Amino acid sequence: MPVRIDETDRKILSELQRDAGRPLDEIARAVGSSKTPVWNRIRKLREAGVIGAQVARLDAEALGFEATFFVLIRTSEHDAAWQSRFLDAVKSRPEVQEAHRLAGEIDYILKVRVQNARAYDVFYQALIAEVKVQSVTALLSMEEIKSTLALPL
After folding, report:
1. 133 pLDDT higher than 80
2. Which CATH code of 3.30.70.920, 3.20.20.80, 3.40.50.720, 1.10.630.10 fits the domain covering 61-140?
């Protein structure tokens, strides 16, 4: 069930989405409040599960991860045992940044971040050795136009 949030909570969440590492004083000033009430609201939002883990967002290209592939997977297997093996395989691979089960002709889509095409092939070979799939289509992203985790509050 969604948590009820007011306009001040929305302002706080928007500021945190911009940069959660900013000092609390700056966030409080930006939302027009003082430090203690803002801290209490943030604590309550964390306890309610609205705010999850706070992590550093790294520059993938600066670290040598220059290739992003969107991997479309079709399977003829839909039993629980296959799905469990597939989910374990996907969750255990750090190259997979996102995985979604889809409605329609494609069963799953993965967002895979690797150094280059050779590294993608290593990932692909390991995946198909672990789980049987009907077909795999890999699409190389030529340019990232927009990437955000921010929700439209």
Report:
1. yes
2. 3.30.70.920
